[in-house]
């Protein structure tokens, strides 16, 4: 009888493939599948759209280890029906996203964005530079998961007062105070900075909307590095044009790539980055610390110990 | 007899003028001088070029409290000859400069600078983005004074390994190791980032030169927020063009404003900011914590307790 297959939908370095084989000697590790191997696939590392139907309908899939933190692009209800486990890559990108957010904030607060634009036209302009101080600011992290926690640690070291929002308002260490998501607009009122790090679920769809923006201070900053559709893009654009808030930075969008005819491109007080905040050096090693730990446990007793997704909740 | 004058060469809020008057009731506080008042000036707050000769030759000046951290633009040897005390504003700008340096680093490491340039032409480009991780980097701060210490605190919170250089290599708390300036080129060899925060003195003139740059790693970053002429600009430009180092950011220049025909403007791997790193919110309050402390002590026993400059040394 053929061995069950661990199907790597992404290429990994030899050292890691060797480790997988050591931990799971009764499995075959494959990066390519012959047609007659499909029904032997038990574990998939990564998830590609074009393989979805094949795997769902013809394999013996029991566990998918996603590479990303967000899993809203996977067929969660199908997984639930078939009893397929799902774990995500949450934590891998935390440090990168955290550094990205701080970089974005300081680009704005220290006038670096303006200076870059001025350099392009060889313009030396001190007086037009907007400057402010990050230290001492009140900042709200909406989403107190892996990334939110890492961001909080980094920001506190820079003298920022960090507050958090999660589903129920349950306390999380490292946050001065945490509030329930239903109070978002009210809590946003007192904040200098609001950072969205929400997963894509029905509950988070367009949660950052005109109601929230109109509650924010006119000198406040909004940043989104979570899911693109957690922001009501049109209403954010209006808030920026009418200067209800001073500045925003988006790394994720409702439609990606951002269409060339989007009005966002030309907003002076919006920084656009092309979904790069999660790009991280040493990715394979970071990913394998999660996957290999899960694999060990899965082989031993069929359970996952790290980053298992609650399929109904969606994260 | 007329009261001696505290001459404010910069306007301060009424609350601070009142405090000055409370601490020094036997002095007159003036922001403008009548001709016959010049010889009564004993203390000058701030130092403007256009008043220099008048004050040096016709006043009874005993103490100048500078607003800036660097004091190389003041007539130090004249002060020494006449026994005039000088104190500087070191410390006021530390937090701002520290945030500026971190902002500059993350602008580069997280590809934010590239994204800003792409946004101007509505270009969505993920694959061309250079990204790296600040956390874990080895960083050398050249100049372990007020600013260097603050920068070290902020950077350590972000996971950076911080080394220092000062005149003699004397240890400074918060630095993993400190070295003497005479070993600059050798120490720079092992660093991912070198940050210059040196005062302008004969000893620091053109200290960042081709010798240093040629020792640095090809993926290293150089930042200068100290004095412009501590950098040999022409040799830095060559190092950048030949990619001896990967990236540089200059906030200060040998000639300011940077002339429009300078070759620096067009260097792709150089970020130019127009001497803004020290711009700081709440400046008056920060400055007054230094000046009022000194004033109290000066009125009591003629001594300064904060930021007195050693005139021969120049800082």
From TrEMBL, chains A, B:
Q: Which family, according to UniProt?
A: Belongs to the D-isomer specific 2-hydroxyacid dehydrogenase family.
Q: Which CDD domains match?
A: PGDH_1 (cd12155)
What residue ranges carry the coiled-coil annotation?
Answer: none
Name the record gives this protein? Hydroxyacid dehydrogenase
Quote the SUPFAM superfamilies the UniProt record gives. Formate/glycerate dehydrogenase catalytic domain-like, NAD(P)-binding Rossmann-fold domains
Query: What are the residue boundaries of the D-isomer specific 2-hydroxyacid dehydrogenase NAD-binding domain, all occurrences included?
Result: 103-277
NAD keyword on record: yes
> What keyword terms does UniProt attach to this protein?
NAD, Oxidoreductase
Task: Tell me where on the tree of life, at the top rank, the source sits.
Answer: Bacteria
- Source organism per UniProt: Candidatus Enterococcus ferrettii
Ranges for domain D-isomer specific 2-hydroxyacid dehydrogenase catalytic: 22-306
What's one Pfam family the UniProt record gives for this protein? 2-Hacid_dh
